[in-house]
Each structure stands twice: as C-alpha cells, then as structure tokens.
Write a structure and sequence with these properties.
single chain; mainly alpha; Four Helix Bundle (Hemerythrin (Met), subunit A); globular
Length: about 120
C-alpha cells in the first residue's frame, strides 16, 4: 500500500513541477510568476508527503509545508541542507514577492526536494 501511494503522490508532484517549468517556457512578458510558485509549492508539498508516506508516517491533509518539512528533517537531516524559508513564507502570500527570481528559487527547491525523495 505504501509503495502505491508513494508512487502516485510522486507522480502528482512530478506533474506539478512540470507545470511550473512549462509556465517559465512562455515568453518572459507572458510568464505568470504566481503560477510557477504555486505549482512548485504544491510539488514540494507532494514530494515531502510522498517521502513521509514511504517512511510510514500518517499524513493529515491539513499539514502545512512547515510541518511536513519538520517531519522530513526528523527522518533525514539532509532536509536541513536547503533553506525553505521562502517557500514557507508562501503560506502568507502578502510576505512573498512574486518575480522571476522567486519562481526560479521555488523550482530549484522543488527539484532538490525531488532528488532527496528519489534517494529515499
């Protein structure tokens, strides 16, 4: 059961990351940075959820990324290697400046999280 749920969650995360990257492929003036960040955020959330499912952790649908990150860090300290502060700030969009740099940071963090999860 854990393997199937892990794989489906990972596939959902991969699709969200793909959507974020696709948005950045548009001409610069057409890129909606909010959409890139939103999809990358969801990808990170799903990667962490999949990672925790794989490790037998029961996940509540109401978990915030900060809680997921804390749980991931308890299992593997490598999650401390990345600064997720900007992603955590996305829970309060008023604190987050949506621009190309932010969008690229979100994609970078999603890709790194994917790498951590793939190592299991």
């Amino acid at each position: 059961m854990h393997s199937t749920k892990f794989q489906s969650t990972l596939s959902e995360a991969d699709e969200m990351l793909h959507q974020a990257k696709e948005e950045l492929c548009r001409p610069e003036e057409d890129v909606v940075h909010y959409n890139v960040c939103k999809h990358a955020y969801k990808a990170i959330e799903k990667y962490m959820t999949g990672y925790l499912i794989h490790h037998g952790v029961h996940i509540l649908h109401s978990n915030h990324i900060k809680d997921l990150l804390g749980q991931c860090r308890k299992i593997d300290k490598k999650f401390n290697d990345l600064n997720f502060d900007q992603v955590i700030s996305a829970e309060d969009p008023e604190k987050l400046m949506m621009n190309l740099h932010t969008a690229q940071t979100f994609i970078f963090l999603a890709e790194k999280t994917r790498g951590f999860v793939a190592e299991k």
